[in-house]
UniProtKB/TrEMBL annotation:
The lineage of its organism: Eukaryota, Fungi, Dikarya, Basidiomycota, Agaricomycotina. This is DUF7918 domain-containing protein. It comes from the Eukaryota. InterPro entries: DUF7918. Pfam families: DUF7918. It comes from Hydnomerulius pinastri MD-312. Residues 9-212 form the DUF7918 domain. Residues 232-241 have a biased composition (Basic and acidic residues). Residues 221-241 are annotated as: Disordered.
């Protein structure tokens, strides 16, 4: 998860937080940016936490996906001596409301392209980004949650496909309990913190040098049995016996040669290092 001040945030898929690559801190903007790997067809959620256990004000976490507002969650003030639980310091947004009683899960989707000229400049400014902004707010009232509207299957001109291949879409619509929305008013122009998750397919991140390349698989070395009871190969036994036989023949020839020289009155010195060619013609 990314962290700035007392706040943490991350993208969760299949119960695990996505690895953040090339994290960049922008203190003057109270902002953190990073890259994450997207996989088309996978549902995801955005999780954030405030680890300030003495919080005495309202905080709103607002989510934008591909530049479109997708809802938010409110952190209420913590009361003095109030036991701190995960529900008070942690929030998760994984659905977009389509009505007060229906919602659709957030998901990564394949970007639709077209060759129609009317889409030449249609790509939203925030395409390829999931942005979480946390602000100090005042609560004005409560009402029924309204449908945010569909942002499924964002369509852009095919010339934009080189830069983008995924977008944010929705999963199948489900029925949910009646949802209420809190009406708020920002108390400051500058947000407390902003987290920006720029998403691309993993192979694109690796090609751009943002994510490390996958390690090459090495071939496993053949197993060698080093047991003490291993027997020598039969061919080795044959070779050793042949060498012993040849050595005996050499010794006999040396003795025969010495005796022959003695009989002729000449002496021959046989050095241990002499090499005798036993090759037959």
């Amino acid at each position: 998860m990314l962290q700035l001040r007392t706040f943490r945030a991350g993208i969760r898929v299949d119960g695990e937080f996505l690895q953040a690559y090339d994290v960049e801190m922008l203190p003057e903007e109270n902002k953190v940016t990073c890259w994450v790997a997207s996989e088309a067809g996978k549902n995801f959620s955005v999780v954030w936490q405030d680890l300030n256990f003495t919080r005495h004000f309202n905080l709103l976490g607002e989510l934008k996906v591909d530049g479109t507002w997708a809802g938010g969650k409110l952190f209420k003030p913590l009361l003095p001596n109030q036991p701190v639980s995960s529900t008070l310091i942690s929030a998760e947004l994984k659905f977009v409301n389509t009505s007060p009683t229906t919602a659709r899960p957030l998901a990564f989707s394949k970007l639709q392209t077209t060759d129609e000229d009317q889409y030449l400049k249609s790509a939203p400014s925030g395409l390829g980004e999931i942005t979480l902004t946390i602000r100090l707010v005042a609560v004005l009232g409560v009402g029924l949650q309204q449908g945010i509207g569909s942002i499924l299957n964002t369509k852009v001109h095919e010339r934009s496909k080189k830069a983008f291949s995924h977008c944010i879409g929705f999963g199948d619509e489900t029925t949910v309990p009646v949802q209420h929305a809190v009406q708020v008013q920002p108390l400051t122009q500058k947000p407390f913190v902003t987290f920006v998750f720029k998403y691309r397919p993993l192979d694109r991140l690796m090609a751009d040098g943002i994510a490390p390349a996958l390690p090459l698989l090495k071939r496993a070395a053949p197993e060698v049995d080093d047991g003490e009871d291993e027997k020598p190969d039969s061919s080795q036994d044959d070779a050793m016996r042949e060498i012993a036989t040849l050595r005996e023949q050499v010794k006999k020839l040396e003795v025969k040669l010495i005796n022959a020289r003695k009989a002729s009155g000449k002496r021959v010195k046989v050095e241990d290092s002499d090499v005798i060619d036993l090759t037959c013609c």
